[in-house]
Amino acid sequence: MNGGPIGIFDSGVGGLSVWRQVVHCLPSESTFYVADQAHVPYGHRSADEIQSYCLAIADHLVRQGCKAIVVACNTASAVALEPLRDRFPSLPILGLEPAVKPAVQLTRSGVVGVMATPATFQGQLYRATVGRTASAVQVVEQVCTGLADLVEQGDLEGPHCDAVLQGFLAPMLAAGADTIVLGCTHYPFVIEAIRRLVGPSMAVLDPAPAVAKHLSDVLRQADLLAPPGAEAEHRFFTSADPASFDRAVARLVGAQCSSAALMWRSGPELCQR
Ligand code: DGL
């Protein structure tokens, strides 16, 4: 089991922002990444729909021998983490949630901005975290409709991307935020553009490094770490077009990975090519 891969999934390429931190933090671990691009974006879908996609993906990852799963998607974590843990009670399953707590500890102005999808903001996980940790600060919630699509399309810089980002950043800036939480795993791929637009005094938080560290702790405690020096293998799957996914993997995390993407189909006829 210690040789099994870590399963990582997202609605699309966003989870690669988590994948790259996992690979950096755990270089001996193999990974198995699934992008459900046939259904991206998840953000505006119903909880039932998202749950059924996530359960199908997790079934697939378990059949592939994954020893742990990272739900590298805030939206999927918001609605599917509990059903996933119910279905696989003995498997370590980690989710993502907006890093509100660190933002609350960091802010000096007392105003924190959170960028995420509608489904994430509506989820119990997020509401409970805000209720527990952010009662003393003002939280400005910014739904970023269309931003995950821009990242899927590789539109990561330039005037169009800047204009879209400016529209999302303006309300948080106007409210006096000095800390912004990236509450969707797609958004770290535009973090440079965000930093340029908001200036150096704004803290912009990407939770992926903390998630990778947590995964490493969980695997160590469960005695599931790959032996040091093990040769890692990274496999990438999409439920949509493998050629364009291949290009996206190369563009976004190409420096960390040379493996070719393979195709994976969603639905009852799950298959690998
Ligand atoms: N990457 C996903 C997240 O972290 C969301 C993108 C989508 O709407 O599919 O929330």
- E-strand count: 10
Which radius of gyration do the C-alpha atoms yield? 18 Å
Beginning-to-end CA distance, first to last residue: 24 Å
Total of DSSP H or I helical runs spanning 4+ residues: 11
Sheet of most strands? 6 strands, parallel
Name every ligand kind in the structure.
D-glutamic acid
> Into how many domains do the coordinates divide?
2
Largest beta sheet: strand ordering: 4-3-1-2-9-10
CATH fold description of the largest domain:
Rossmann fold
Compute the average pLDDT. 92
The name of the CATH architecture of the largest domain is 3-Layer(aba) Sandwich
Low-pLDDT stretches: 267-273
Strand content: 15-25%
Helix content: 40-55%
Alpha-beta classification: alpha/beta
Q: Judging from the principal axes of the Cα atoms, what is the shape?
A: globular
What is the ordering of alpha helices and beta strands? EHEHEHEHEHHEHHEHEHEHE
CATH class value of the largest domain: Alpha Beta
